[in-house]
Design goal:
This is Transposase IS204/IS1001/IS1096/IS1165 DDE domain-containing protein. With about 80 residues, this protein is mostly helical. The protein has one domain (about 1-80). Helix content is about 80%, strand content about 0%. The radius of gyration is 14 Å and the shape is flat. The protein has helices spanning about 1-5, 15-25, 30-45, 50-65, 70-80.
């Protein structure tokens, strides 16, 4: 399952997508973590530093609301 969760959204097959839906039904926190991972990955693809910084600041709010400790710890590291 960990390999499935590491896949990028655009790399998922229909079968992978169905498996993720099943997992997310069992764990909404896992779904939120996966979404945050995808959003963070998208931020890393931005070429404009100012745009990336603004987007990252918006994501901080999502991380705080998620209450997912590992993401909150990453947020603290990035803010330094």
């Amino acid at each position: 399952m960990s390999l499935l969760l590491q896949k990028r959204a655009e790399e998922l097959t229909d079968e992978d997508h169905e498996k993720l839906i099943e997992l997310f039904e069992l764990s909404p926190a896992l779904e939120k973590a996966w979404e945050l991972k995808e959003e963070f990955r998208d931020l890393l693809q931005l070429d404009d530093v100012k745009e990336a910084t603004r987007a990252l600041k918006r994501r901080y709010k999502e991380v705080i609301k998620s209450k997912l400790i590992p993401f909150y710890q990453v947020k603290k590291i990035i803010q330094r």
